[in-house]
Amino acid sequence: MTVTENEVILFDGVCNFCNSSVNFIIDKDKRDVFRFASLQSDFGQECLKDFNLPADSFSTLILVSNGKYFTRSSAALRIAKDLSFPYSLSFAFIVIPPFIRNLFYDIIARNRYRWFGKKEVCRIPSAEERAKFIE
Fold it and tell me: Rg for the chain (alpha carbons), in Å?
């Protein structure tokens, strides 16, 4: 896996909801903390392999931070912690046990294609965003 000083968010590159979430994070990441890669990319596949995660399952957001990975609601809340105010306040929900938090996460994850749609190909970053993406 390529080493980066930044935290890396791995997302489902064909999911419209996931792509909208990436756009939101880019807009609210005022300290330039995050880099992004689709789970389907070579980098994403390498990360999945390094962490012994299934390479063909794209139902979770993954945050790679300091050699560790976080998934599902834990990843989402840790990402929120580094976003601008007031979004950073949502990190307070980390005190809720993961099995409860993940119930809500899993409902959205299971229905994301049906509710938000799906692209045929992975997201192509704009010229301004390109430096934030790992291929």
Answer: 14
Q: Where are the domains of the chain?
A: 7-132
3-state SS, residue 34:
strand
The model's pLDDT over 74-109, given as tens digits with 9 standing for 90+, comes to: 999 999 999 999 999 999 999 999 999 999 888 888
The answer to whether 35 and 133 are in contact (CB under 8 A) is yes
How many other C-beta atoms can be found within 10 angstroms of the C-beta atom of residue 10?
29
In contact, 41 and 135? CB cutoff 8 Å:
yes
State pLDDT tens for residues 38-49.
998 999 999 999
Backbone angles phi, psi at 22, to 5 degrees: -60, -45
Which residues are CB-neighbours of 84 under 8 A, at least 6 positions away? 28, 29, 30
Number of residues that make up the chain: 135
Q: How far apart are CA 26 and CA 67, in angstroms?
A: 22
Residue 124 gets which letter from DSSP?
-
